[in-house]
Design goal:
By secondary structure, this protein is an alpha/beta fold. The chain contains six helices and seven strands, in the order H-H-H-E-E-H-E-E-H-E-H-E-E. The longest helix has 16 residues, at 3-18. The radius of gyration is 15 Å and the shape is globular.
């Protein structure tokens, strides 16, 4: 993926954040799916795979406008980040969450600031392998107990998508888990790494 594709996706997210819409499926990029896309099922999968306890601190990298965050705020100490200023502004309009603007490969938090760190549907929008590895390194740096990287693809479903190889996740110590529901016929999976 080129820097042009990075700008392409950044412009899309910025335009969604600047829109008048409050439809979380649209705002977080899931409006095109022709199957039920359930935020509770997804967050339950993250919680189950990391064994997250109530009261844990959780960072969502690429939190978007809050499609998943709305499921995590009451039982957990939730914080989110996204690289789109307009998306974060919209998130704050819709929810009372602690969210910040920053790039996934340069997180603004101290080492070991959170029990768990996750991203979902983020990796396909990253610009290249180096950026993806930096993102994983940052997620590990700020996490005490575990990392979840969800909605990964084996192959691109659009020319502008990026695919981080499954083999590289395994080399970096991640376990591969498959989603209970497969969306739009694509072979998708998640990567989990427990740090404790």
């Amino acid at each position: 993926m080129s820097k042009d594709n990075y700008k392409f996706w950044k412009n899309i997210w910025d335009s969604k954040g600047n829109s008048d819409s409050e439809d979380l499926l649209f705002l977080d990029g899931y409006e095109h799916l022709d199957v039920e896309f359930n935020s509770k099922k997804i967050t339950d999968q993250i919680i189950k795979n990391l064994n997250i306890e109530d009261g844990s601190s959780i960072l969502a990298v690429g939190c978007g406008c809050g499609f998943l965050a709305r499921e995590l705020n009451s039982d957990y100490n939730f914080v989110g980040v996204d690289y789109s200023e307009s998306i974060i502004k919209k998130h704050k309009q819709l929810f009372d969450h602690e969210v910040y603007v920053c790039e996934s490969n340069n997180l603004i938090f101290e080492n070991k600031s959170f029990d768990y760190v996750f991203c979902y549907g983020l990796f396909q929008y990253l610009p290249d392998n180096d950026y993806a590895r930096q993102t994983l390194s940052e997620m590990e740096r700020v996490s005490r107990k575990g990392i979840f990287v969800g909605d990964l693809k084996n192959e691109k479903t659009r020319d502008t998508h990026f695919v981080f190889p499954k083999e590289e996740f395994i080399e970096l110590g991640f376990s591969i888990v498959y989603a209970e529901d497969v969306k739009d016929g694509a072979d998708r999976y998640s990567a989990v790494r427990r740090l404790k």
